[in-house]
Amino acid sequence: MAGSSVETPLGVTDPAGAARGYRPSATMPFAAEFRRQASRRRTQLALGFMVLLPLIILIAFQFDSGDDDNGRNEFSSLVELATSGGLNFTLFSIFVSASFLLVVVVALFCGDTVASEASWGSLRYLLAIPVPRARLLTVKLVVALAYSGLALILLAGTALLAGTLRYGWSPLRSTVAAELEPTEGLLRLLAVLGYLAVVLLVVAGLAFLLSVTTDAALGAVGGAVLLWILSSILDQITALGALRDFLPTHFSTAWLGLLSTPVQTDDVVRGCISAISYATVFWGLAFWRFTRKDITS
Amino acid sequence: MTSPSPAAWFRRALPTRRRATAAAVVVVLSAAAVTWAVWPEGPGVRTESAMLTVRSGPSGDEPVDLDTTLYLPDDASSGRKVPAVLLAHGFGGTKESVRSDAEEFAGRGYAVLTWTARGFGRSGGEIHLDNPDYEVRDAQRLLDWLAARPEVRTNAAGDPQVGVVGGSYGGGLALLLAAQDRRVDAIVPMITWNDLSRAFLPESTGAAPTEGVFKKGWAGLFFGGGGNVGSGPAGLSGGTAAQPQGAPASAGPPSPGPGAGPGTGPGGAPTGAADPSCGRFAADVCAAYLRIATTGRADQAAVDLLRRSSPAGVLDRIKAPTLLVQGEADTLFPLGEADANARGIAATGTPVRVAWFTGGHDGGSGPRSDEDRVKFLTIQWLDHYVKGEGDAPGDDFTWSRIAGFDALDRGLVATGFRRADYPGLTGNARREVTVTGPAQPIANPPNGNPAAISSIPFAGGLASLLDGVAGDVPGQHARFESAPLTEAVDVAGSPTVTLRAASPTGEAVLFVKLYDVDPDGAATLPNGLVAPIRLTGLPQQVQDARPVTVTLPGIVRRVEAGHRLRLVVATSDQAYTTPAEPTVYTVAADGAVSLPTVSGEPIPTAATIWRWVLAGLLAAIVIGLVVVVALVRRRHRRQDRSVHPEYADTPLAVRELRKEYADGFVAVSNVDFEVHPGQVVGLLGPNGAGKTTTLRVLMGLTQPTAGEIYVFGRRLVPGSPVLSRIGALVEGPGFLPHLSGLDNLKAYWRATGRPWEDAQFDAALEIAGLGDSVHRKIKNYSHGMRQRLAIAQAMLGLPELLVLDEPTDGLDPPQIAEMRRVLQRYATDGRAVLVSSHLLAEVEQTCTHAVVVNKGRIVASGPVEEIVGESPSVLFDVTDPVAARAVLDRLHGVTVLPESDGQLVVDTNGTARSDVVAELVRAGIGVDRVVPRRRLEDAFLALVGENSRGSGDR
């Protein structure tokens, strides 16, 4: 290798002919990208809302006059149980956010990350540094997932803290199982969060694929959310039968099984298989596409 | 920052071959998935329906019409005989109730004969409750018929290879038929009875059915279901039809729709005038029911009649291997019935296997896992003992326990267990739990009203589990409660309790139940099962009473740690007939509740498989990732690192570059030039000439179709490390709008991962000349400020080759002048600059060398002085162009180039300009202007002349 190195007029010696100090694996450090995203208003707003939401719910519960009838469904029982303790309050906060809010937030972090660089025109300068395309995507994806995870943790953490301060540290109750001791309940709650994170990988994958496909950040985020909603709608149509098992949203509520005693992991495991398969396919396509495409933005 | 035009977007959206391939793959996959989902399973099945007339009755000569359907696998024939299954339906059903199961068995290679039992549907005759002379003999005649079918395999002449399967009423028939006819090779009776008199007149201290407490709720439903000839209460008969047979999976017969019960069937009504009080019941059965229901007590004759219809007395004659499937949620035929059958049949050495599932007459077919298990066991049993395939199923015992609600569809979830031997209802271990409470007086309500509700027939397992139904009437029940359990107990079998009771009349009818009470106080009566007892010879005072042991119906339940057991003794129950006279009993229970437990290992379910699938998937992904990374690394290592010796010191050499876009547009067809150290090279051309495309390829943003680019002798491909030696501004600035100018530069440099001190921010900022504005956000910048910042960004780290696309765009004249000086200075110490522009003047003033491109081709190239220098062509502005042309044509060596109107471009070819002017003047032609042309201008104008129209070029 040394034989093929070359001395340039400026005294650069590098087997690959790179500038001094340039190493492909050192480009686009994780921390740099993390700061880059942290400086953005949408990141700050999304994370801030994750903190705010449990507090808003908490305040809303203070208006409870106690005589309203929510009907006998699973939602009402969760509402009734929400004020029974910090764990239940957290569970409620997750329950109301899981179906839409978290989907939007994850789609935002993962769908916006590449598309917005493309729309600002800064993507081509990153690639001309040059940041290897696979590395650029890897770092972008890891940072987007880190922010998605952070959002989830912030939501649950704030809810747990605020709920515990307001309603106390009591066992986790649910309509599907016996009371769970607080420590056991906390473990179940963590398992629920873990499963939710896995399910949301589908959104992350889809949004990320759209993000490398389009230059419009809104298109990537909105597209992922729209497809998620479409899948949810199709999942309501029982006539589809076994086909529904293949919908990415089919197992999205399987985390309820983690609250029962004993824990029902059947659907959770199938949901994990479904989500991980989808996410892998989407990410695979995203990498395949991005490492080959002509950057024209 | 060019956003693609709609046309470009449209072009890109058009299907290219690759997109078309991807779309085709998606379509094919979706179609395959849909086809797979809706494709009918298994081989085809054909059916033959017939009304068969068989002779049965005590003397075997009473004809009765039976409505039958034979299901045959498509390939069954006299040459390819198949074993048979006789599939019986439940009480109130018809042959249609079992259609889907029949199809399933037929699909597995059996000839399946279903028929509507006498007294139901279109069949004739009356209901004799599986009487050996009637229903059982009917079935024997069907065996004869099966043996005569050419498609059915036989063991001997007239002896078909046949298994009998049925649930409830059909299960009873299976047992009784096997006892009466040795031709039956295997039976699978489900949720059925051992002793019909005990089922309807239970007594849990072990007294005879004549002392039993009448189970009026179920009896009434059955009588109603089989009774009315005319328009019976549709809901009732439908309900009856739906449940008693329906339970076990699809191996048991499923339910017909409401109204499919007896009496509502279309036509075929039985002959003769029906007794309105008896409907289609045989007279003796009807009379017995009326007697029992009237008094609430059974006489010996009625018990004898029910016993005739019970397998209890004939179990020793059953030689056919028997798979007994019984439901835990079954207040009609609880687990004890199957237990008695199992013990009776096994006593003679006949193979018996027992399975419990969480459904039953109350619980339906149970959760999916139970359905699957029952179906598997049934098929396995038939395959081995009838078809002769597969290993012996063995005699291990499987059961399941409700584990909770399914989180997704709100159904129930059961956990399956297995153990090698069947422990019966007494378990293989026992746990004693002491319940305490004072002796309590309880009132018997007159005529049993109001009554406690323990279960509602057909309410399903949900109702009993939700404890929405269970309710004891205050004053009519006594409670005895245990301390919270220190550890969970897995009850499986019949708990026993000891009671003492006193009654002023000396008699008492009581209902004993065992609740599971959670720490919140919510009490659950497992499956709504109660133990009715009739005590006689009781003393007046409870302290004189002798303890009696009550055996409760078998349950399968896990009582969690921290829960209590509550023993309740009630005086009334809506499902039973109780004494009409009001009385006050006194009840005491101070002994222990003895709970049978069974240990077993959990049956692996589909969940286990899915777990392996998940593990496999994760492993596959990890392996896939490792392989991909290894491949990429390998390719990276093998990357061409050689240095082209010819270009080793050349910052840039472009060789025969060609770029053709996917839609066929050729942006660059053949571009060839070099940039050497110390040069400022101008890439000059009108808009659309291919300048930007060339630069895009140069930056590794776009793959060239053909040709090479060498940077310092390194072959350049997208992402080449050598790109780090190029600083670029291509297609306008690209900044993060929410950051300040300085932060943008810092963020950019951070992304390069190169040492901080190499960036030379000060130099770059000086070039940008933004002053304090570098601290303002980019979104507030003017176009020119962004442009200057972008140039500064390109110069960060002082790259050896600077590539600037239209650098003066948006700058004002002084800044343009300053920029020229900067670029010229930049190229002095061995660095090189490549500038693209569509402005001739700019290139002329800034660059040392120029490359003129048009339509993707190089038109001219070389040092600017050379190109700009004097050219042999001169432009004449004359008063009379026609005459002038004539004059000039006469001059030797001078040629007039075909050029624009009013002006003449003349190649003087060595002739002095003054001579040419003199000639023209001499000819009397006025010469307004003589402008010497330069080569660069020639070249450029040649292009612009053709291209400028409508292009908006300046």
From TrEMBL, chain A:
<feature type="transmembrane region" description="Helical">
    <location>
        <begin position="91"/>
        <end position="115"/>
    </location>
</feature>
<feature type="region of interest" description="Disordered">
    <location>
        <begin position="1"/>
        <end position="20"/>
    </location>
</feature>
<feature type="transmembrane region" description="Helical">
    <location>
        <begin position="136"/>
        <end position="165"/>
    </location>
</feature>
<keyword id="KW-0812">Transmembrane</keyword>
<feature type="transmembrane region" description="Helical">
    <location>
        <begin position="216"/>
        <end position="234"/>
    </location>
</feature>
<dbReference type="GO" id="GO:0140359">
    <property type="term" value="F:ABC-type transporter activity"/>
</dbReference>
<dbReference type="Pfam" id="PF12679">
    <property type="entry name" value="ABC2_membrane_2"/>
</dbReference>
<dbReference type="GO" id="GO:0005886">
    <property type="term" value="C:plasma membrane"/>
</dbReference>
<keyword id="KW-0472">Membrane</keyword>
<keyword id="KW-1133">Transmembrane helix</keyword>
<protein>
    <submittedName>
        <fullName>ABC transporter permease</fullName>
    </submittedName>
</protein>
<feature type="transmembrane region" description="Helical">
    <location>
        <begin position="45"/>
        <end position="63"/>
    </location>
</feature>
<feature type="transmembrane region" description="Helical">
    <location>
        <begin position="185"/>
        <end position="209"/>
    </location>
</feature>
<feature type="transmembrane region" description="Helical">
    <location>
        <begin position="268"/>
        <end position="288"/>
    </location>
</feature>
From TrEMBL, chain B:
<dbReference type="InterPro" id="IPR008979">
    <property type="entry name" value="Galactose-bd-like_sf"/>
</dbReference>
<dbReference type="GO" id="GO:0016887">
    <property type="term" value="F:ATP hydrolysis activity"/>
</dbReference>
<keyword id="KW-0813">Transport</keyword>
<dbReference type="InterPro" id="IPR000383">
    <property type="entry name" value="Xaa-Pro-like_dom"/>
</dbReference>
<feature type="region of interest" description="Disordered">
    <location>
        <begin position="234"/>
        <end position="273"/>
    </location>
</feature>
<comment type="similarity">
    <text>Belongs to the ABC transporter superfamily.</text>
</comment>
<keyword id="KW-0812">Transmembrane</keyword>
<dbReference type="InterPro" id="IPR027417">
    <property type="entry name" value="P-loop_NTPase"/>
</dbReference>
<keyword id="KW-0378">Hydrolase</keyword>
<dbReference type="GO" id="GO:0008239">
    <property type="term" value="F:dipeptidyl-peptidase activity"/>
</dbReference>
<protein>
    <submittedName>
        <fullName>ABC transporter ATP-binding protein</fullName>
    </submittedName>
</protein>
<keyword id="KW-0547">Nucleotide-binding</keyword>
<feature type="compositionally biased region" description="Gly residues">
    <location>
        <begin position="260"/>
        <end position="270"/>
    </location>
</feature>
<feature type="domain" description="ABC transporter">
    <location>
        <begin position="652"/>
        <end position="880"/>
    </location>
</feature>
<dbReference type="InterPro" id="IPR003439">
    <property type="entry name" value="ABC_transporter-like_ATP-bd"/>
</dbReference>
<dbReference type="Pfam" id="PF08530">
    <property type="entry name" value="PepX_C"/>
</dbReference>
<dbReference type="Pfam" id="PF00005">
    <property type="entry name" value="ABC_tran"/>
</dbReference>
<dbReference type="GO" id="GO:0005524">
    <property type="term" value="F:ATP binding"/>
</dbReference>
<dbReference type="InterPro" id="IPR029058">
    <property type="entry name" value="AB_hydrolase_fold"/>
</dbReference>
<dbReference type="InterPro" id="IPR017871">
    <property type="entry name" value="ABC_transporter-like_CS"/>
</dbReference>
<keyword id="KW-0472">Membrane</keyword>
<feature type="transmembrane region" description="Helical">
    <location>
        <begin position="20"/>
        <end position="39"/>
    </location>
</feature>
